[in-house]
Amino acid sequence: MIIILKPNATKPQIEFLRDELSGRGLTIQDIQGETTCMLGLAGDTSMLSEDSLIRHEFVERVMKVSEPYKLAGRRFHPQDSSYEVAGRKIGGGAFTVMAGPCSVENEAQVLSIARDVKHSGADFFRGGAFKPRSSPYSFQGLGLDGLELLKIAREKTGLPIVTEIMSQEYLDVFRADVDIIQIGARNMQNFPLLMEVGKIGKPVLLKRGLSSTIDEMLMAADYILMGGDTPVILCERGIRTFETSTRNTLDLSAIPVIKKKSHLPVVVDPSHGTGYWDLVYPMALAATAAGADGLMIEVHNQPDKALCDGQQSITPFLFDRLMRNVRKLRTAVTEEA
User: Fold this and answer.
1) Cα(100)–Cα(125) distance, rounded to whole angstroms?
2) Predicted confidence (pLDDT) per residue in 164-187, tens digit
3) Residue-range domain boundaries for the chain
4) Which of 83, 87, 282, 313 has its CB 3.0 to 4.6 Å from that of 298, i.e. a possible disulfide?
5) How many of the other CB atoms lie within 10 Å of CB of 255?
6) Average pLDDT of 111-128?
7) Beta bridge partners of residue 108, listed in sequence order
8) The domain 2-63: what is its CATH number?
């Protein structure tokens, strides 16, 4: 629901209405148009009648919002969102690259890859400390020890770190130590985790679920956004279809669709999206051309010896080549636009 206020509405009148609505458990977002001030309401508005709102002399009219997501949509927030994270801009015309190994293995591996991807122009170092695996017998990550290795990489290279949280148990640790908290595909609809992560104020990278629609991902983003002023970045990482030639089907059409529906930045993960290292390079370029706000790339210095997802990891040499061509493509796409 959107409440459109009259141009002569005073600040005390608006604050009075905000207090009344927040007392009903609703989340309120200011929407500033060119000539009009509006309030967007998220939450259960079923008991809120339009007539009760129109009775306020400073309310012009009330609009129902048909989309099942509110805070992630453009009705409440028509302008693209952009964030400053550890001195790096995400969204708003910037192009952000997050790169690193699927899983943190040891200090030598972490530092070698972090230095390589920084040299090639990566903005963030990504690495898995906690690993959600389909098989209970697969490598599950180093846990808190892995997080310590990521912190060493940040200290040595200056690259902010992105890593996945799997449990509310580690919220305090992630709040203190992680620059961008990743919600993985398997936890996209772990609503208690989403709500708690949204309360700590750290930027969140939300990956699309294995078989989730775009609207379901935007509704999941709303769970995080309802917690407060939390930066949310969406990630298209491929969805499960009947196709067996690739690990997942990378949905590049999701980029313009999300941008039409939502103000949130969207990055693309062609590593999980394809599952094969030789497909990462062309699909990363395709995602760039399609208008993504950034990329998440798995890079490993010895992919054949990787403890996790080596088959979809590219080498530092190929990552450097990819970055050079991404920059060229970005220049061409920007000039064309």
Assistant:
1) 6
2) 999 999 999 999 999 999 999 999
3) 2-63, 82-336
4) 313
5) 22
6) 97
7) none
8) 3.30.70.1140
Enter the tokens of residue 282: 């062309």
Give the tokens for residue 50: 């339009």
Tokens, residue 273: 């999206």
Taking alpha carbons only, the member of 33, 38, 44, 35 closest to residue 59 is 38
Q: Which fold has domain 82-336?
A: TIM Barrel (3.20.20)
Q: What percent of the chain has pLDDT over 90?
A: 69
The helix/strand/coil state of 256 is helix
pLDDT digits (tens, 9 = 90+) for 195-223: 999 999 999 999 999 999 999 999 999 99
Residue 296 · residue 259 · CB < 8 Å = no
Altogether, the residues listed in the chain come to a count of: 337
Q: Give the Cα separation of 51 and 190 in Å (integer).
A: 37
Tokens, residue 69: 């997501």
Instruction: For the chain, give the longest Cα–Cα distance.
Output: 69
Q: Does 8 have pLDDT greater than 70?
A: yes
Which pair of structure tokens corresponds to residue 206?
A: 């939300």
Q: Can you spell out the DSSP letters for 87-128? A: TEEEETT--EEEEE-SS---HHHHHHHHHHHHHHT-SEEE--
